[in-house]
Automatic annotation (TrEMBL):
Coiled coil: none annotated. GO terms for molecular function: 5'-3' DNA exonuclease activity; 5'-3' RNA exonuclease activity. This is PHP domain-containing protein. Residues 9-77 form the Polymerase/histidinol phosphatase N-terminal domain. InterPro entries: PHP_domain, Pol/His_phosphatase_N, Pol/histidinol_Pase-like.
């Protein structure tokens, strides 16, 4: 019998199966790592591809993790996260308005890193399409005095939207830096419903301002810029 409790969750992580980013760890290795760190819920959100299967779901279940289908899609040169929608069709998803077709009670449309200094951040596009989104991200890469999440917090408050803590991990050591505690039963429908009802606690702390952390961030941002140019040429 399921019971409501606080579930440790991350809904934005990339793995080696990502066709756009160079990631060293596979989805299974991510699941192993997250399981050892007490995670209950994960979504693998690779670029423009759903990394999810019955075998992967069952492997996650064997490790005590609920795996929710996820994807980070590119539309109008911006990024959008879809959760629990395996029917993503790139030929029918060219604009932010097209995202509306994926709205339903048991799915989530999330605005990832909307104000980070990358070309794929939604920025002003978020206001124009705010009614499409179910939640806004609070992303791990920030420092005490440099925090691009502050405007995302303000926007979530202004539009009465949930704020989700995520890692947007591209390296395993980023997993667990920022995450959400979701008060829900451990099943997909309950988790999504709890997020929409804002039964969320974000666990996060600023990164230390060290050369290794700065280098890690620059590598991430540089990769985003390069991949954006590459994708846009296609």
């Amino acid at each position: 019998m399921n019971c409501t409790r606080k579930l440790k969750a991350d809904f934005h992580i990339h793995t080696q199966e990502d066709p756009q980013d160079r990631i060293r760890y596979t989805a299974r290795e991510l699941i192993d790592y997250a399981s050892h760190r007490g995670f209950d819920v994960l979504a693998v959100t690779n670029h423009n591809v759903v990394t999810y299967s019955r075998e992967l779901r069952e492997y996650a279940h064997s490790k005590g993790i609920l795996l929710i289908p996820g994807i980070e899609i590119s539309v109008e040169r911006k990024h959008v996260i879809l959760l629990n929608r395996e029917d993503f069709n790139p030929s029918q998803t060219k604009t932010l308005e097209d995202i509306r077709q994926y709205r339903r009670d048991d799915s989530l449309i999330i605005a990832p890193h909307p104000y980070f200094p990358i070309l794929q951040g939604l920025r002003s596009s978020l206001d124009k399409a705010i009614d499409i989104f179910d939640a806004i991200e609070y992303t791990h890469f920030y420092f005490k005095r440099i925090n691009f999440n502050r405007k995302a917090e303000q926007k979530a408050t202004s539009f009465n939207l949930p704020l989700l803590g995520v890692s947007d991990a591209h390296f395993l050591r980023q997993v667990g830096t920022t995450y959400s505690l979701i008060e829900a039963e451990k099943n997909t429908q309950s988790v999504i419903h709890a997020i929409k009802k804002k039964r969320i606690e974000i666990i996060s702390s600023p990164m230390r301002f060290t050369s290794s952390n700065i280098l890690l961030g620059l590598r991430h941002l540089a990769g985003q810029v390069f991949n954006h140019k590459y994708w846009f040429k296609k």
